[in-house]
Amino acid sequence: MSERRFTFHRLWAIVLKEFIQMKRDRVTFAMMVGIPLLQLLMFGYAINSDPRHLPTALRCADQGPFARTFIQAMRTSDYFVIVQDTASEAEVQRLLQVGDVQFVINIPADFSRQLLRGERPSVLIEADATDPAATGPALAAVNALAGSIFNRDLPGPLAKLHGKAGPVDFRIHAHYNPENITQYNVVPGLMGVVLTMTMVIITALAITRERERGTMENLLATPVRPFEVMVGKILPYIAVGYIQVTLILIAARFLFHVPMVGSLPLLYTVALLFIGANLAVGITFSTLAQNQLQAVQMAFFFFLPSILLSGFMFPFRGMPPWAQVVGSCLPNTHFLRIVRGILLKGNGFAEITPELWPLLLFLTVAMSVGVKRYRQTLD
Amino acid sequence: MSATDLAIDVTGVTKRFGDKTVVNAIDLSVRRGEIYGFLGPNGSGKTTFIRMLCGLLTPDGGSGTCLGYDLRTQQAEIKRHVGYMTQKFSYYEDLSIRENLDFIARIYAVPDRPAAVQHSLERLGLQNRSHQLAGQLSGGWKQRLALAACLIHSPQLLLLDEPTAGVDPKARREFWDEIHQLAADGLTVLITTHYMDEAERCHRLAYLAYGNLLARGTLAEVLAAAHLTTWSVSGPGLRALAARLRGQPGVEQVVAFGTMLHVSGHDAALLDATRTAASDPDHEWKKINAGLEDVFISLMDAAKDNFA
Ligand SMILES: Nc1ncnc2c1ncn2[C@@H]1O[C@H](COP(=O)(O)OP(=O)(O)OP(=O)(O)O)[C@@H](O)[C@H]1O
Ligand SMILES: [Mg+2]
In this predicted model, what pLDDT tens digit does every residue of A254-309 receive, in sequence order? Predict the structure, then answer.
């Protein structure tokens, strides 16, 4: 008898029904496409903007020609606006503290002399890195700056000083936040965030809605099995998930010029695991929730750590150990690393394997809990 | 009677929600091909009992079979062969009539599905509306759709939970003609209702109150078993008369029926004494056969004293 076993025709019946319902529910479908775009624009442009004209304090103890050239070059690069000249140590610390300046640049007294002697003078750049996205590009710029101006300024015999190390040793002291997130991190990271948000909510509603509208009673009175209902409800939304992935990749490529070094087919394959994991979480929530409002609240409960503790908002290594443990249990944490690894570093299957099995484990656990929690009766 | 003649054969079926016993040790046997009426006041446990029959709820006590399958262990088989029409419309309002039928037919793996869907649309006169969304249908049409959907897999037993609530008299009559036709074809039907005229169209009846089965049998058996004496009174000032009669010895029930008052009680002699004392030239008293409604209301009042 087929009553007790999984059958394909029942699964297919559920899939078709979900597709029709999705087609009828235009608003929800529009949201599924709209949310990724909106988030991309907000996060992408807000965080990706390469901030310029950053207020800077200068403590220059050297009056030599090289120091002057250096300062002049900084002024002409539009990253820095020197708002304070030769302030006292206490004064610059206060400025940094209250946030009046983003950088303090300390040029030592014998800067020019050391440079001429080829001793790689140290320039200490103190940065308020509470918002690392703001400081990162500027710091990169100052490095490039030094390399190019002194190439030009250092005459004949001194040209040997342009070694690989560069003529000046920049000591960057990033206050408040030691890790930098580069802008390229954000857009690939968004993929995980968008998928987590929409996939969990949409499926969290899927079964709760049936219960709330009373259609569950009918479904339970038919021979359809829990596993068939789960998978049947998940499959259509995998398609939606892929639409979102594609939208984000297109935007990453053409709006934000994110480099894509690795293999896209690999990324698409791994995305299946991640989408499945989130859908399974949503299904599990919907077996727990009494009504649709509760289901949405649960989805948000899951979404918050996924955005805050996954390494999307804050550098993962900067988080306290307990937060890292929580983060490691979330699929988004591993997916973020995979996406960044594949897109930015060109990781292949071997490199992402350590992040792959936690995803697989999560998917299995969430799916089993969902199937177990799905009651076959109304008790 | 052999067990295979019984579509439903259960004993001692009990369901508790928390410490409240909603269905209390009910025995019921329904023959194949029979239309069995299930009556009882709101909250008496009719829906709960039906849900246990079709495997939606697990009984806390009792045992039995439905279509020969065990109530506790063969729920999957029961679901395959039972058509259940829920009290509240429970098909997909955002699917069209045809899509709903198609969905159910797929779930049951009905052979030659397109033909089966088409046939059920025609049989219920829904073919012109097949592309209308179920949510836009009026109550009567929703009920037709629900009946069509729970018949599509050719079940052997139909469980209909208040299928005619809120349906107009003509549609109700057509619905019942359909039910009788199905029963004539061999289908067993268990149907709950609050309408007395519908109860009278059933082959046999059961009356449930507060989870207890208080009466069962054919219409005549139920009426006879009640031992209820009923007088009908006509004349002026019936409201005042009703107020006077209430609480008199032997008077258990005073109900207004249009321009008449039905006065009933179990103790015929006592009731007669009261009648003689209360009679006056303005009012005409006539002894009548107690109707189903009189019997049910008296059963309900008695049950309230015993169980509530
Ligand atoms: N899931 C449940 N949890 C707790 N109590 C329940 C549950 N389902 C039903 N009940 C209670 O069981 C009692 C019987 O309910 P049921 O729906 O079976 O009555 P009914 O005879 O179908 O009533 P109606 O004629 O109004 O449809 C009611 O008091 C109801 O509140
Ligand atoms: Mg009911």
Answer: 887 777 888 999 999 999 999 999 998 998 898 888 888 999 999 989 999 998 88
CA distance A214 to chain B (A): 5
Q: Is B86 in the pocket of ligand 1 (CB under 6 A)?
A: no
| Type of residue numbered A266 | L
Predicted-complex ipTM score? 0.83
Which of B205, B223, B241 is where one domain is finished? B223
Mean pLDDT, chain A, integer: 79
- Identify whether residues B58 and B130 lie together within a single domain: yes
User: Which of B51, B76, B133 faces A3 most closely, judged by CB atoms?
Assistant: B76
The tally of domains found in chain B comes to 2
pTM above 0.90, yes or no: no
Q: Is residue B172 part of a domain?
A: yes
| Structural contact between residues A104 and A126, judged by C-beta atoms closer than 8 angstroms | yes
- Which CATH number does the domain housing residue B128 bear? 3.40.50.300
How many whole angstroms separate alpha carbon B58 and alpha carbon A225? 17
Comparing C-alpha atoms, which of B297, B294, B274, B293 is closest to residue B285? B274
B60 in contact with A at a CB cutoff of 8 Å? no
What value does the mean pLDDT take over residues B272-282? Answer: 85
Minimal-distance CA residue to ligand 1 atom 25: B42
All domains of chain A in start order, with CATH: 54-175 (3.40.1710.10), 182-373 (no CATH)
Say if residues A93 and A142 touch (Cβ distance below 8 Å): no
Give the pairing of strands A169-175 and A122-128.
parallel
- Return phi, psi of residue B253, to 5°: -150, 125
Over residues B201-229, the pLDDT tens digits come to: 999 999 999 899 999 999 889 888 888 88
* Shared-domain flag, residues B116 and B140: yes
Q: Does any ligand 1 atom lie closer than 6 A to the CB of residue B248?
A: no
The CB of B43 under 6 Å from ligand 1? The reply is yes
Q: Which residues in chain A land under pLDDT 50?
A: 1, 48-49, 157-159, 161-164, 176-181, 183
Q: Please identify, among B166, B191, B223, the residue that sits at the C-terminal boundary of a domain.
A: B223
Q: Can you give the CATH number for the domain in which B263 is found? A: 3.30.70.100
Q: Is residue B209 part of a domain?
A: yes
Instruction: Render A181-244 in DSSP notation, one character per residue.
Output: --HHHHHHHHHHHHHHHHHHHHHHHHHHHHHHHTHHHHHHHSS--HHHHHHHHHHHHHHHHHHH
